[in-house]
Amino acid sequence: MNKLLRMKITLFERFALISWVVVVVYLFAVFRDQTHPDGTLDELLKLFFSSLSAAYLQ
Amino acid sequence: MSHFISIFGPLAIFSFACVGVGLLVLSLFRSRPQEDCAVEYVIAFVMGQGVLGSLFLVLALIGIFTKPLLLGVLLPLTFIGLWKGFSSIYALPSVLQKNALVFIKASFLWQLLAVAAVLLLLSGASAVVGRIDGDARAFYLALPKVVAASHRLIPLPAYEGFTSVGLLAEMQLAALFLLDMPGASPRLFSWVISLAGAVLLIAISRNAGLGRRGQLLSLVMLSTSSAVAYFWGQGKTDLFAAVFALPAVLYALKDCDNRESRRNSVTIAGVFTGFALVAKLSYIVAFLPSMFVLLFWKDLNVYSLNRKTIGSSQLLLKTLIKYSFVFVLAIAIPLIPHLLKNHILLNTLVDTYGNHHYFSDETTRRIVYTYLFWPFFGSFWAQYGNLSPLMLAFFPLLILMFCKAGQWSSKATGLFVAGATGLLAWIILFPGVPMPRYFLATLLLFTVPAAWAMERASYIDRWINCTITLASLATILVFYVSWSLEVFRVAAAYEYFVGDQSEKNLQIDEVLSRNVYESLNQNAGLGARVYLGSYYRFWLRPDLIQCTNGKKDEGIAFDSKQPEKFWIQIYQHGFTYMFMDNTNPAFAALNATPNWVRAEMIYPQSGYGGAYRLSFSNPPADLKFTTREVAFGAWDVVSAK
């Protein structure tokens, strides 16, 4: 525990982690009430970017 | 009497009876590692579920599953459960005070998260007014309703072979039907047991070294998994297996002071694993390997530290063999009533269904390649829900914390390795079955290491702390909104609970579907034969369900080239009513009735099906089958001669 408490998370790790969390939670919010694709990465990314562009266009 | 009393009264009686019998069974294992009072009661509750479910199975097989006998069994046990519960109530104020102090000292975001998680879990009770899942309308709720009314267990018509599945959950629901719970409300028991599951997951987290934040995060991940929440009120019984599995995990994780304590711990873990296997046989693939990892995780760690010591390999081998034997022997105990049931009813011991090849090779490949994603975002056929996105969101943090902390021997690591072992076994044997409910307990093991990493990170970095709490709150909010029509129907549930005993406050699809069956219930006489052109039967009267088309009627099929043949068979088999789905192949027969058949519509055909009364004048064949009440409430289809 002490070792853990002394542990530092670098700026890059923090940025990468927070970005990843935002992407996953955003995807979760996007998928609600939708007929999901079959969960494959390419379809997830397609939906992610299409939803981003849709939000931008609005 | 309002719904509230008629629903929660029997639930309370049955739940306390489970606690009572569970405490009696656990008292046989005095020198076992103990948990705090609340967790001990929950473990006893789950043990009681297994024991009573098995007992009811035997009573129903004998044909004496009657209300006087049920009350005779339950009431003394309920008294024991209540008595033990109230005798420990003196500890409640200090526990509440302690928890209140911890709550007050926590930061606002953590307080908010705790309140949101508890509210989400409690509002899950409103799932009881949601739509009943198709499988539950076909079998999982229909069978208990029939068992309760007929006081016996025989194969459900049209599902004769499928009756070989484990019926532990169904027998508990049958007891609740027999205690006069109205409509389909016994399905609420799935939510009750998921509360027990939540307490057990928190206990596992605490045992794995997680603090209060970690325990709360485990709870949040459990509650925001639709693979869990979907089953709170839909009538399917998949959660029972997961809840039986969790105490097994808890006992496998326990530190034991001496050999007797270890032996008892392994035995109890084995009994719970056995109950889980009966409730869901698929757990044998992914959960059993996980259990072996957990049972011997500490021994393997000790061995890795002392592997150069002479005799350490022999000691490890001896321990593995000895406790594996105890574990397997304990697993066999709950299997006995289940195997007995299959032997008596179906002359088989274990039956499996299909080849589990649901998807094309290409789709199966895609499932395997994206195994990190489909449990969270997938929506494959029959998948029934996802895991919490928080597990995926903080998975990189788990890797980061494991690498930086280097605590490879901790229990959290053990849970991760156990989960990964089970998951790997599933991927190898069933790569094309992306269905969390088949190995839910194994997948839930991952919540604990994820929560462990999140908790540790929340203490060392305030940005990460904020991210964790905000992401968790956002997930709860999105989850609640996403499932507000299916699960979280709080306003409708309030009306349902405080209103009179009627089913009009159920979800509208359920009400409209029920109306069709209700028209048959009101028209058909006792023991009338209803030809079901549908998989679904729950809302029919129990005597009518027992007399619907089953194995004896397998030869009946509609052929548009010979429509009269179908109607002759219908007459010969004694059917006088008909329920027809729009999609059933025999639907066309209603437009091809010969002149000696009259199909009078008693409920108009719609997307929810239609109901018909059949009458025959001068039929060109003799009657072959009729029905007879062989015991009170028990109806058989018998030869007419």
UniProtKB/TrEMBL annotation, chain A:
TM helices/strands, residue ranges: 12-31
UniProtKB keywords: Membrane, Transmembrane, Transmembrane helix
UniProt name for this protein: Uncharacterized protein
Classification of source organism: Bacteria, Pseudomonadati, Pseudomonadota, Gammaproteobacteria, Methylococcales
Automatic annotation (TrEMBL), chain B:
Coiled-coil boundaries: none
Subcellular location: Cell membrane
GO terms classed as biological process: lipopolysaccharide biosynthetic process
Any one GO MF annotation of this record: pentosyltransferase activity
Presence of keyword DNA damage: no
Domain of life: Bacteria
A single GO cellular-component term on record: plasma membrane
Keyword Transmembrane helix among record annotations: yes
Membrane topology: Multi-pass membrane protein
InterPro entries: LipidA_mod_glycosyltrf_83 (IPR050297)
Parts of the chain that traverse the membrane: 6-29, 41-65, 71-96, 108-129, 188-204, 216-233, 268-297, 320-340, 390-406, 413-432, 438-454, 463-483
Keywords: Cell membrane, Glycosyltransferase, Membrane, Transferase, Transmembrane, Transmembrane helix
Protein name: Glycosyltransferase RgtA/B/C/D-like domain-containing protein
Organism expressing this protein natively: Methylomonas denitrificans
